[in-house]
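hey m, so remember when u said the tokens were messed up on ur end? i reran from scratch. heres the input so u can diff it against urs
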Amino acid sequence: MAATATTALRGAGGSLPRPLPRPAGPGAGHLLGRARHHAPVLPVVAVVLLLCVPPGADDARVGPADAASAALVLWCAVRLLRTRARPLTRSAAVVLAAPAVAFAVATVASTDPAASLPGLVRHLQVFVLVPAAVALLLRDRADARLVAAAVLAAAVVQGAVGVHQYATGTGASYQGQDLRAVGTFGPLDVMGMSTVVAHGLLVALALGLAPPDRAPRWLRPAALGCAAALTVPLALSFSRGAWLATAVAGGAVLLLAGRRLALRTLAVVACAAVVLVGGLGVGSQRVGDRLASITRVTAAPDQSVTDRYALWAAAAGMWRAEPLTGVGVKHFPAHRDAHASLALSSGSDTAGAGRAFSREPLLSPHSMYLLVLSEQGLLGITALAGSWAALVVLGVRRHRLERRRPGGRARDDVGLIAVGLLCWQLFDFAYADIGGPSTVLAGVVLGLAAWWALRPHDPRAERTAAP
């Protein structure tokens, strides 16, 4: 009967109804679903990716990422007012808000509170507002992996620019030649490229050690190869501080991942790095000299190390003069000469990477801990360092608890990334402080670490992390 009906339709000049076209697999619909799922966290991704945009010639210390961070905080506030979906827990609010109280007290106690206001705003941006916004906008591991992927992408871009600068002699001035790889940050922020590249290296290392569940097989070798490749621009940055911080944070990631896996991965990355830097001769002589200079920082320090020692001594002198609340936020330059020794030079020379020679004044002690101690006293350093210590302890504890859950090792990458980036930042703060366009990345890292350490565990959210 069905055949007769079909023949009748065709004989009468009709046509059979065609079946509706099927969706194109996991293409458009799947991508649209993922875009909707990740929409709240896209401003965080934008902040990270905008680090690749040059800050501009007018004011190299302020870049597009800073403006995007302000939009990120506003976006988070509007979203909270509309949805009221993710308020901070009591412990998270205490950990994140304690530094804000210390900043406000130090500003009020300053001899010139009006002059301290810009420093108060900057400290609130980097250490309170941006971390809180990131912690509130992240909802699951999928969001955290997207932010980590943005960090890795920014590191690859900055690393490629840095290697090109070294190869073509268009980098920042180093030992009389324009060879230092600084990426798009310029000579006024020589730590910018090395910071972004080091963060991307740690992300790639964590992904290589613990690929996400149901990840393709090529992800592990690709991530480890990317980590090894990023050692080249990191070496060409000639930043001793970034090298030390990466070694410490990488060691922490390896220990958290497991001894056997750590030893195998360390051997692979080390061999690849030796081939790239040593075997191919990519700046091997200058890198070797720079490494050797680390051991001479006490016996025969260069002028940069001498200046740093003098600035550290000046910061300690300011704290002894005002031990409780410090000399006031943003007041280190005004009190520097009264506490510094004669060994301190008048400034640091900067040139290359498209900028003319200039001499930049030394406006900070180049140590975040000493900067806070000198400007905000025991009150500020206790609140800030205590908040960071809580993030480290709770982050490691969360990582261990997650590994004990069924299938926890398949979700180990996010914990490794969060703890590793936090360790890098806190170790780097021993000889570096905030300043420059790359500073906003510290706020994103602190927010990622706060989300990982302070979020309440929700198994249902983990099961429905991706659409």
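this time it looks ok to me. Residues 93-458 form one domain. if urs says something different then somethings off w ur setup not the seq
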